[in-house]
């Protein structure tokens, strides 16, 4: 199949590109390199450097390539930036996504796959782990934009017959995650520890997240191409809660022999206290389960950063 991967120079998108090419698909990457890295892009992919916010750029790709599937990962991913610059966040995450949806509709794309979020959409959870029916109470502009695109996808399905798959990831980690910015705590801690620099935990460190390894995300995308029917939303998660303190302890033991101790700073407003999602639905549909234990995934990630610093 011909698959357009937006954000294919980024952390998750580039791993998906590698997986799709490995499975024999033809991949076109659209990325403006705002946070992505050209070194992440597979040599076997066709790379278009451009912005999803440009309707002309998007239209040209659909004109030049017979796109079967859109795999949409390009986004402004930083929750804190979405709070300080909500218009910018919405321009990329909503209007950019609409450019792709319009082109997909016009060109009869078979399926639109969207990278959504578990934590930011469910907000402070009422029960743990959250399933896909958990009430949605996003408390950040980022969560609102992700929810909005989910609603647009349902509209495009109902009115225009465009099939979709929504994957709500929890906290994805692994090689190639950008340690700059605020988004990936594993990448931030690992790189600081490798540099011998201090690591900061905001709040008590008892806040929990559900960490899922990027290789497991890629497997979910490959399974979906073989098995998806209809238009559904799935959590892609482990269901396990890990505190930031415990994450720090494991990374410190892997990288510094336990010597790195965190510095504590004031809790940041708007951060979720606890977050975890169940992947029972995708397990029943595609037979997907997380396969990489946290400690093993962190060891692989630390080894990657050590080699690529
Ligand atoms: N990392 C996570 O834990 C996580 C969790 C839930 C959802 N997601 C979603 O997964 C997707 C990928 O996230 P990631 O962690 O790989 O982030 P990333 O920043 O590494 O990847 C995003 C990519 O999109 C590109 N991009 C940004 N704006 C663009 C634009 N206007 N036009 C074209 N390209 C643009 C960037 O250059 C980058 O390569 C995002 O949609 C994100 O919201 C990520």
**What's the architecture of the largest domain in CATH terms?**
3-Layer(aba) Sandwich
Strand % is: 15-25%
Side-by-side strand order of the widest sheet: 3-2-1-4-5-6-11
Bound molecules: nicotinamide-adenine-dinucleotide
CATH superfamily of the largest domain: NAD(P)-binding Rossmann-like Domain
| Category from helices, strands and their pairing | alpha/beta
Order of helices and strands: EHEEHEHHEHHEEHEEEHEEHEHH
Largest sheet data: 7 strands, parallel
Q: Determine the number of helices (DSSP H or I, runs of at least 4 residues).
A: 11
The name CATH uses for the topology of the largest domain is Rossmann fold
CATH class of the largest domain: Alpha Beta
Number of discrete domains? 2
Shape: globular
Key features of this structure:
binds nicotinamide-adenine-dinucleotide, 7-stranded parallel beta sheet, alpha/beta, two-stranded parallel sheet, 309 residues, 11 helices, 2 domains, Rossmann fold, 13 strands, UDP-galactose 4-epimerase, domain 1
């Amino acid at each position: 199949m011909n698959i357009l991967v937006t954000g294919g120079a980024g952390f998750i998108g580039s791993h998906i590109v590698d997986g799709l090419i490995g499975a024999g698909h033809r991949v076109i990457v659209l990325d403006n390199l705002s946070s992505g890295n050209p070194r992440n892009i597979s040599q076997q992919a066709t790379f278009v450097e451009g912005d999803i916010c440009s309707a002309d750029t998007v239209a040209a790709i659909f004109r030049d390539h017979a796109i079967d599937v859109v795999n949409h990962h390009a986004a402004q991913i930083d929750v804190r930036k979405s709070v300080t610059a909500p218009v910018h966040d919405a321009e990329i995450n909503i209007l950019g996504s609409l450019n792709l949806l319009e082109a997909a509709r016009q060109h009869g794309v078979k399926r639109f796959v969207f990278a959504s979020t578990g934590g930011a959409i469910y907000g402070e959870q009422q029960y743990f782990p959250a399933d896909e029916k958990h009430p949605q109470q996003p408390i950040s502009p980022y969560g609102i934009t992700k929810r909005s695109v989910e609603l647009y996808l349902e509209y495009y399905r109902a009115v225009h017959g465009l099939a979709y798959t929504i994957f709500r990831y929890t906290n994805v980690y692994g090689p190639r995650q950008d340690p700059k910015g605020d988004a990936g705590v594993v990448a931030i801690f690992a790189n600081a520890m490798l540099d011998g620099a201090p690591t900061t935990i905001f709040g008590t460190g008892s806040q929990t997240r559900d960490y899922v390894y990027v290789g497991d995300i890629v497997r979910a995308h490959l399974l979906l191409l073989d098995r998806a029917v209809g238009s559904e939303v799935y959590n892609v998660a482990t269901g396990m809660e890990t505190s930031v303190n415990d994450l720090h302890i494991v990374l410190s033991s892997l990288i510094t022999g336990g010597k790195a101790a965190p510095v504590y700073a004031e809790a940041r407003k708007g951060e979720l206290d606890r977050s975890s999602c169940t992947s029972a639905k995708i397990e029943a549909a595609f037979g997907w389960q997380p396969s990489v234990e946290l400690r093993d995934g962190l060891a692989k990630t630390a080894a990657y950063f050590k080699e690529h610093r």
